[in-house]
Amino acid sequence: MLTLRPATPQDVPHILAFIRDLAAYEREPDAVLATEADLLRDGFPADESKTPRRFHSLIAEWNGEPAGFALYFYSYSTWEGRTGIYLEDLFVRPEYRGKGIGKALLTKVAAIAVSEGCARFEWSVLDWNQPSIDFYHQMGAVMKPEWLGMRVTGEALHKLAAQCVTELVTK
Questions:
Q1: What distance in Å separates the CA atoms of residue 115 and residue 117, rounded to the nearest whole number?
Q2: I need a labelling partner for 41 at 20 to 30 A (CA). Which of 16, 49, 50, 152 fits?
């Protein structure tokens, strides 16, 4: 039997395990730097009035066992003038696939987006991950071929930040 529920601080070890399993599936098993402390700090702050929640997560349980998760956060559409939801990760353990868990997680996040008046719900998928691409197409998603993802991380991010001009100096 499938149960979907919001993640709690006690789920942090499961969330990190899902993230590591997803990284292995995506051929990047050593890329995960996140720790339980990071996830606890950013997903379950003690006082959200002082430290905002950076992400939300759903846990899928099959017969009481953690089977998968979805992790998402809010974005903002300047053109729509409304928030959106970005799905960072969706993962179902291999032994639980084919039971509708991925679809249940995806539709639950979509329902959250609709109930909160979000203008859009989006995510990325690796170009080689044809099973996921096919699944997302079946759910009504469309590819955005005219948009290319851009990212700056690590040392390049620090170099870019170092170029920040905080004051305009005129001579």
A1: 6
A2: 152
113, 85 Cβ separation under 8 angstroms: yes
The one catalytic residue in 25, 76, 96, 136 is 136
Is 72 known to be catalytic? no
pTM higher than the cut 0.70: yes
Domain holding 6, by residue range, is 2-162
What the block records as the tokens of 112 is 């959250």
Structure tokens at 151: 């990212």
Cα–Cα distance for residue pair 122/143, rounded to 1 Å: 10
* Residue 167 domain-assigned (yes or no): no
Cβ neighbours, 10 Å, residue 85: 22
Tokens of 38: 């990071």
Specify if 13 maps to a domain. yes
Q: What's the average pLDDT block by block, 10 residues per block, for the chain (171 residues)?
A: 98 98 96 98 94 97 98 96 97 97 97 97 94 93 90 92 72 51
Residue 169, in any domain of the structure: no
13: CATH: 3.40.630.30
